[in-house]
Amino acid sequence: MPGPAQNETFPAIVEAQGAPGPVLLVCEHASNAIPAEYGTLGLGEDLRQAHIAWDPGALGLARGLARRLGAGLVHAPVSRLVYDCNRPPDAAGAMAERSEMHPVPGNAGLTAAARARRVAAVYLPFHDALHAEIARRLTLGPAPVIVTIHSFTPVWFGVPRAVEFGVIHDADPRLAEAVLGEARATLGLTCEMNAPYSAADDVTHTLKLQALPYGLLNVMLELRNDLIATEAAQEDMADRLAPVLARAVARLRG
Amino acid sequence: MPGPAQNETFPAIVEAQGAPGPVLLVCEHASNAIPAEYGTLGLGEDLRQAHIAWDPGALGLARGLARRLGAGLVHAPVSRLVYDCNRPPDAAGAMAERSEMHPVPGNAGLTAAARARRVAAVYLPFHDALHAEIARRLTLGPAPVIVTIHSFTPVWFGVPRAVEFGVIHDADPRLAEAVLGEARATLGLTCEMNAPYSAADDVTHTLKLQALPYGLLNVMLELRNDLIATEAAQEDMADRLAPVLARAVARLRG
After folding, report:
1. What does pTM read for this prediction?
2. What residue ranges define each of the domains in chain A, with the CATH number in brackets?
3. Does B88 contact A208 at a Cβ distance shorter than 8 Å?
């Protein structure tokens, strides 16, 4: 019987490529799928469904935003437990041996060759496809506005989080400031800048790699996942968030 | 008779991948080759051999440095007149209609589709391959030190240039400052910082795209091309420049 294919790659999925708007939504943690060659990573079904494997609700929210904004969408097809596409290859969190309080047995003591294979199978195909879509939009115009969509768990290491909507930036805060201003005025959620994480926690790799080199407007958005737990809630949140994003972009691009 | 292949791509060439040293040399303007589907771009043989098409001497110097430093080398297989891999897709200079005082007829009035095809054929395959090599080194360690190798013409728009060795940085000047210090002490050339160009002239795209997102030490080096016009001169310059680079890297990495 042949062994698993060692050279299979998992490129990012590009949706709504012909959408007319400038926004390009990115969802690095869209999926909790673990390709067959990685088994279960030693985790039970409950943990493979939990926030350590993906950002629950983020893809549904991103699709709702894409439809309302006429935006494109690029998302990862593989769980961040295999490779977290929002981390560089030398980060401990790229192929985490532990996530929150949970050990990930299938990531313990990976050889250099195994790490390199995951980089080649997941990280590079994700970022190559995102880069190609950004380059295509730069060539044809208008320059894309990069908005990454994430969700976070209401309880972290046993402590409840009060923030409901987090707006995170790296070196270029322009869009984050505009989004936070619009959100605080109209969204009716507890909104904070650079919470529950910030660039200092190494969560802005995609912004650094894909947006800053081109001077593109960019921001990372974080929704508390209990607010987008069902399809209906995702649609409702997209209804509320789409105009916030549209006004913030219009304020900066005219 | 079939027409030219429209989907042919021209990935960067990776040499000395197993080299033990931390330096990764990059030569975006290594070649003056124009793939058959682009004809001559409307230029005579003299201009296709001139500095507008490539950086004469840069690849020979880079190979000499790679051998002496145990460095890897990534270089472009196609003339910058087809696509300048050190420019983003929305830069006028990416597919220049004019270079110095010379019009480039084959680049005049390109359609959006033609521009997108060159981005997909030349720009993305170059940067994907460079990115893969950087990611591979980040995964296996040590983190690479990015050194791009360029040459410039002694006379620009009729004006002679006095500078012989230019050291150029983007947002992170650490390696540039170390190289310039070592060069002024030992190289015996007229050395300048951010000359004959600087980041303000949009010449640091590769550094922004490939080195800054990972916090890698990086610098762009420019040699006046009359100093590296022959193989013997390239070897001699590599003899002089390799210890300068080695000492600068050692100063920062210990």
Report:
1. 0.96
2. 13-253 (3.40.630.40)
3. no
